[in-house]
């Protein structure tokens, strides 16, 4: 099933429960390598990237078993730090295995990580940070090799709040000798979730939720029972889809406390929002309003992972909107497909898109080329008149458990093919 068919023009109604976070699950699963016991990771989403990570863990010697409400991981038998190529080159988040395996085995041999084609995303920052902790790197036959005779704490300052680099420092530092102070750490909720899991396992980490973390290395780590938080990007996708179709929905379990910039943009688009213990209630206007400027930024700013879906909704907004992408250079890859659906989009340099809202999009055959852009094309299909076919949906399934089922629960006419 690599295609999604959508009969558009139906306002979303009803409620849907938000799945566990992809971006939190993957580094937490990697972190189980640091524990020589079993951990139970609750609310772990059943998505392709998680399956790929589990396949990698099993290849390293972990025993991994799914339960109805989570997954058990026992890494007691792991002895090697060499991992295969297939899943690594197809999943950028496998890079967090670098820090985890150095912490566990003292050495790593792996392919350079891949993933969605949304920008260069160099790993120099990761390597520079870990070198300060005693890790030596080299390249042999196109593979990245890393080794550390002795991990030591360090004072590390990141030039940019990279989520991946922050994760790798955390995963390495908990096994290093001495204290590590990390300045310029990423603030994303997924970093907080990783810190909380490591703390549940016995790690000493101070400053959680701030941009300065102090990790006291060398603590014995043990297994833990931990629940992955809900996925703020999935919640944002469904929120903007409601804004675009003019519906009323309840996003159960939505982590609205982590979505301030997203909620502000949704309200600017005319949405009426109400938060409660149940989640997030969304009531959309008949037509979205234009937003003068949406600018992606590191957390707590507007997330780059929701830029594409915001662009799709702005395409039918009442007036002109400006979208500025400051994180990745290839996030406007869906512009060609949106134009095929009738959107009026004009590039204003490499990082800015001027959007002149049209009354309605029209159905067309479009192609997903990366995860978040693919989900945005599904949103565009929900808003469009007529039938839309989205191909290349293997990308979408990397991050959404069952996007067709979820939208059907909200009344949309969506099927996979």
How is this structure best described in words?
The protein has 417 residues and is α+β, with helices and mostly antiparallel strands. It has 2 domains: 3-19 and 230-416, Alpha-beta prism (UDP-n-acetylglucosamine1-carboxyvinyl-transferase, Chain); 22-227, Enolpyruvate transferase domain (UDP-n-acetylglucosamine1-carboxyvinyl-transferase, Chain). The chain contains 13 helices and 23 strands. It has helices at 22-31, 48-59, 86-89, 96-105, 124-131, 163-173, 189-200, 232-245, 260-268, 307-314, 335-340, 371-383, 403-409; strands spanning 3-7, 13-17, 38-42, 63-67, 70-74, 107-110, 136-140, 143-147, 155-157, 179-183, 204-206, 212-216, 225-227, 248-252, 272-275, 279-283, 294-295, 320-324, 344-347, 352-356, 365-367, 387-391, 413-416. It has a 4-stranded mixed beta sheet. The model is unreliable at 115-120 (pLDDT under 50).
Helix and strand content put the structural class at alpha+beta
Strand order of the largest sheet: 21-22-1-23
Give the name of the CATH architecture of the largest domain: Alpha-beta prism
List segments where confidence is low: pLDDT < 50 over at least 5 consecutive residues: 115-120
Helix content: 25-40%
């Amino acid at each position: 099933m690599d295609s999604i068919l959508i009969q558009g023009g139906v306002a979303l109604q009803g409620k849907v429960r938000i799945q566990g976070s992809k971006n939190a699950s993957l580094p937490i699963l990697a972190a189980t390598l640091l524990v020589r016991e079993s951990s139970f990771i609750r609310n772990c989403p059943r998505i392709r990237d998680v399956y790929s990570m589990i396949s990698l863990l099993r290849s390293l010697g972990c025993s991994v078993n799914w339960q109805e409400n989570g997954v058990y991981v026992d890494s007691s038998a792991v002895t090697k730090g060499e991992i295969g190529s297939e899943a690594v080159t197809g999943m950028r988040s496998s890079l967090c295995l670098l820090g985890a395996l150095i912490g566990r085995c003292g050495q790593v041999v792996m392919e350079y990580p891949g993933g969605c084609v949304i920008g260069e995303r160099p790993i120099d920052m990761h390597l520079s940070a870990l070198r300060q902790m005693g890790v030596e790197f080299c390249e042999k036959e196109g593979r990245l090799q890393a080794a550390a005779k002795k991990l030591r704490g360090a004072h590390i300052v990141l030039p940019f709040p990279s989520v991946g680099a922050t994760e790798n420092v955390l995963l390495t530092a908990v096994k290093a000798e001495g204290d590590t102070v990390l300045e310029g750490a990423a603030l994303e909720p997924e970093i907080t979730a990783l810190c909380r899991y490591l703390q549940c396992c016995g790690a000493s980490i101070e400053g959680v939720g701030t941009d300065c973390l102090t990790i006291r290395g060398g603590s014995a780590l043990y297994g833990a029972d931990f629940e992955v938080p809900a996925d703020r990007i999935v919640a944002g996708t469904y929120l903007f889809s409601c804004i675009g179709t003019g519906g009323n929905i309840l996003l159960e379990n939505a982590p609205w406390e982590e979505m301030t910039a997203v909620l502000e943009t949704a309200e600017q688009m005319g949405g009426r929002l109400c938060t409660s213990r149940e989640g997030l209630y969304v009531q959309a206007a008949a037509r979205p309003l234009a937003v003068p400027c949406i600018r992606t930024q590191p957390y707590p700013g507007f997330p780059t992972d929701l830029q594409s879906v915001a662009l799709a909704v702005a395409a039918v907004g009442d007036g002109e909107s400006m979208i500025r992408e400051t994180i990745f250079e290839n996030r406007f890859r869906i512009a060609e497909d949106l134009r095929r659906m009738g959107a009026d989009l004009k590039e204003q340099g490499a990082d800015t898109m001027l959007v002149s809202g049209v009354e309605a999009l029209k159905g067309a055959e479009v192609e997903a080329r990366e995860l978040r852009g693919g989900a945005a094309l599904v949103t565009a299909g929900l808003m469009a008149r007529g039938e839309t076919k989205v191909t290349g949906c293997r990308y979408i399934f990397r991050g959404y458990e069952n996007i067709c089922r979820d939208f059907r629960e909200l009344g949309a006419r969506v099927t996979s093919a």
